[in-house]
Fold these 2 entries.
Entry 1:
Amino acid sequence: MDARSMDLHARSIRKRNTKCLLVSVLLNDNRLLHPINKLPRFTYPPPLPTTSKTFKTTACGGDQKVHNQPVMNPLIMPSLLLTLLFFTFSNAALDPDSVYQSFLECLPLNSPESAENLSSVVYSSTANSSAYTAVLQDYIKNQRFNTSSTPKPSVIITPTSESQVQAAVLCAKKLGVQIKIRSGGHDYEGISYVSTEPDFVILDMFNFKTIEVNIEDETAVVGAGALLGELYYRIYEKSKVHGFPAGVCPTVGVGGHLSGGGYGTMLRKYGLSVDHVTDFWMVDVNGLVLDRKSGGEDLFWAVRGGGGGSFGVILSYTVNLVSVPETNTVFRVMKTQAENASELVSKWQTVMPNIDDDLFIRILLQPVTVNRQKIGRATFIAHFLGDSDRLVALMDKNFPELGLKKSDCIEVSWIQSVLYWANFDVNTTAPEILLDRHSDNVNFGKRKSDYVQTPISPSGMTSIFNKLVELGKLGFVFNLYGGRMYEIPADATPFPHRAGNLFKIQYSVNWNDGDPELEANYLNQSRVMYEFMTPFVSKNPRGAYLNYRDLDIGVTSADGENSYSEGEVYGEKYFMGNFERLVKVKTAVDPDNFFRNEQSIPTLAGKISAPSSSYRGEARKTVKIQLFLPWVLKIFLG
Ligand SMILES: Cc1cc2nc3c(=O)[nH]c(=O)nc-3n(C[C@H](O)[C@H](O)[C@H](O)COP(=O)(O)OP(=O)(O)OC[C@H]3O[C@@H](n4cnc5c(N)ncnc54)[C@H](O)[C@@H]3O)c2cc1C
C-alpha cells in the first residue's frame, strides 16, 4: 500500500466510524492509520483472592512518561487534565472493523495468493459475525473463557497455506496487534484465544491437519492443527505395532501439546512426545519458514517443550514412531479410604517408579459419597505394553497389596488402549471415533500441577484424602514417573522434570454451570489445596508442568515493563535450569518479543532494562500522546 492509498484508507475508515473517537493512531511502522475506540476494561486472568492481581493498564504506570515527553510540556493545559485524558485513551482498543479492513488490504501485499483467497480466511465480529463466532467457539475447550465478558479477538485468521501464515505474521506485526496462536484450543487458561492486551488476533491453525505416516522409516510428519486422536488413527491405519507417546485426550492439538512437552501412558517406556521430535517447520517473526537445519539446534531445542507462542508459528513437527505390542492390557481398580487407599497410594509411589517400564499406572484421588458418607477414593488406571499374564505376575511380585486379578484386566490392541483411556467403551466403539474432532465434553475447569520427590507417608496420604473430602469437589491425578523419564537428562529438552521425581500431580476440578460464585468457589478450592500440599511437593523452585497451564503461578503483565522478572517467576517453575537458555534463544529469534502471551518466554532486554521497543504498547503510547495533543488543545482552547 503506498502512502496515498494509506491516507485514503485512513480517511474512509474515519468516515465509516463516526461513533469512534475522531482520533487516528499511527502504528509502529508509521504507515497505517486507524481510528480508535474505547472498550470496557476486562480482567484476565481472573484475580487471585489473596493478592488481587488484576490486569494492570498501561495508563496506571504511564503518567510520569506523559510529563517527560518533550511534546507534552504544555503551558496551557493543567497536567491533571492531561493525566485524565491519557488515562482515558491509553486503555483503548483499535476498532475491530478497521483491523479487519487493514488485514484485508495488507495480506495480499505480503502473499502471492489472490485477495479473494486471502479474504476467505479472515473473520471479523462486524463483517461476518456469525461465522466469526462459530470459528471462535469451535476450539474453545474451557467454558470459563466462553462468556460474554471474555475478551474477544479483533479478527480470526484461519490459514490454509504456509504463505498465508507468513502474511498473517507480517501484517500483525505491521498493524501492531498481538497474535494468539491456536491449534487444538486445549490450553487450560485459554491462552491461545484470550488475551490481556486490548488488540489481538487469533491465528487458528486447525486447517494444518495433514498427517503423513511412513512406516518404512517409522516417522510421521504431523501438522500443528492435527489432533492427537487423528495422529493415533493414521498410525493405526498403517500398522498395528506402531504408536506415538502422547496425551490421553484425543482432541488435544499437536501444536500446543508438542510445544509444551506432551506425555501419555507410554511415558515410562518412551518418555515425552518431545523426546521423539526430529524436525519442525515454523514461521518466524520475519515471516521466514525455518526448520531444524535453517533454524539451528538451539531453536530446535527450544520448540520441543519451551512452550507454544514464544518463538514462532509451528506448521508441523516430524516425529519418530515407537513400537507397541499387538497385545496390551488395561485395568481400572478402585479402593476407598475404608479399603486402605492411603496405604496403597503410599506404596504405589515407592515401588512403582522402579517397576517394569512397560507399565504405567495413574491414580485418581477423589472425594466420593458411599452410603451417604463422604470418603476419599483412589482409582488405579493402568496401561501395560504386554499381556495380562505377565502383568498379573509383575503386580503379584511388586505390588501384591493392590490384589490385582486377571479378571480385572482387559486385553486390547494399542489403538483400543487409546480408546479405553479416553473413556470410550472398547467393546462398542470403533477407532474412527478418533477422527471426530468434537468427541469430547467441554466443561468449565481449572488445573494446577506439582511434582513429588519424597515419598508421602500413609498418614500424609490420609491427610490429603481428608482435605479433598473437606473441600468437596477438587480431585487429584497422580501420574507415575520412572523408567525412560529418569534416563533422559534434564537439559535434553526444555522440559526439566526428569530423574528424582516420583510422580506428577494434576489438580483437577470440572463443573458445568456458569455461575460466577461456583467458579470462585472451585478456583479457591484449587488454591487452598495448593497451599495445603506445600510440605509434600518439590521446592526451590516448586515445579509445574507447562501443559497444565496455571496463571496463578505468575504472569507477564500486558505492559511488558517487567517481562524478565515476571517471566522468571513462572519460567523457573516450568523450566527450572533451562529457563535462561530459553531466554537466550528467544532473544535471538524474536528480539522485539512479537510472539508473546501471559506466560511466554521473555527476552534478555527485559532483564537489562524496561523494554522500550520490545512491546508495541510502549511505542504506541508515545505515538498516541503526540497525536492526542493537538486534538486536546483544539477542544480546550476552542
Ligand atoms: C481434556 C484435556 C486433556 C489433556 N490431556 C493431556 C495429557 O494426557 N498429556 C499432556 O501432556 N497434556 C494434556 N493436556 C494438556 C495439553 O497438552 C495442553 O493444553 C496443550 O498445550 C494443548 O494443545 P492445543 O494445541 O490443544 O492447545 P492450544 O490452546 O491451541 O495451544 C496451547 C498453547 O500452545 C500455543 N500454540 C498452539 N498451537 C501453536 C502453533 N501452531 N505454533 C505455536 N504455538 C502454538 C498456544 O498459543 C498456547 O500458548 C490436556 C488438556 C486437556 C484440556
Entry 2:
Amino acid sequence: MDQTKEQDEDYGYNLFPDRKKSKYKKGSIGESLFTFNHKCQVMLQFAIETSPYAKLLLGAMKNSGCTVYKDRHFSCEDCDGTVSGGFDATTSQIVLCQNNIHQQAHMNRVVTHELIHAFDHCHAHVDWFNNFKHLACSEIRAANLSGDCSFTNELSRFNFGLKQHHQECVRGRALRSILAVRKVSKEEAEKVVDEVFDSCFNDHTPFGRIPHSKKDAKFAYRDFENRDRYFANL
Ligand SMILES: [Zn+2]
C-alpha cells in the first residue's frame, strides 16, 4: 500500500459518523435519537437472550477468554447510508446502526454477523488493517454462518435458487462488505475472496455446521452446550 493510499484510507469509518464525534452532541433531534437508541437497546437485549446464533457465539467467546459485555462491547449509533452494523477492531466494539435496524429478525442477523467478526478477532489474531486475506476470510465466515444467506432471507430478496446459490450469496455479500470499508477495486477484492474462499467457507467454527435456519442454530447451540458439559467433567 503506498503512502497516498494510506492517507486516504479511512477503513470504513465514514460509514459510522458517531464514531468520530462526542457521544453527547446530538443537537435538537436528540429526543428522537433517544427513542431510536432505546429501541435498539431493547432489540439487542432480546437478541442476546433469545437468538441461538448469538447465544452460541457469546458462549464460545466466553470460553475463549473474550467475554462480551453488553454495555462495553455493543454500541447503538446512527450510521450513514444503508449499513446495518460494523465491528470496530480498535475498540473491540460492535456498532449497531439504530437508524437502519427496525426489525428484531434484522437485529438478530446483524448481532450474529458482527459477533462472528468479534469471535475471529478474539480467536485468530486477525490483522484487519494490513492483511486483506484476514478481512476477506472473516467476511466469508460472517456471511456464511450468520443466516445472511439463509433461504428465507434470500427468498425475500427474490433470489430463487438451490444450494449452489448459498455459496454465490456468501461470495457476493463478502465482496460487498469488503468494498464498503476498503478502497480497493472490485477485481482486487474478488481475487482475494476467491483465494481464501474454500478454506474459509468450510470453517464453521464455532457452529460445527452451517446454520441454515434458526432450527439448525438451535441444534448447534445444544451441541455446543453438551460439548461444554463434557469438558466440565474432565
Ligand atoms: Zn462483516
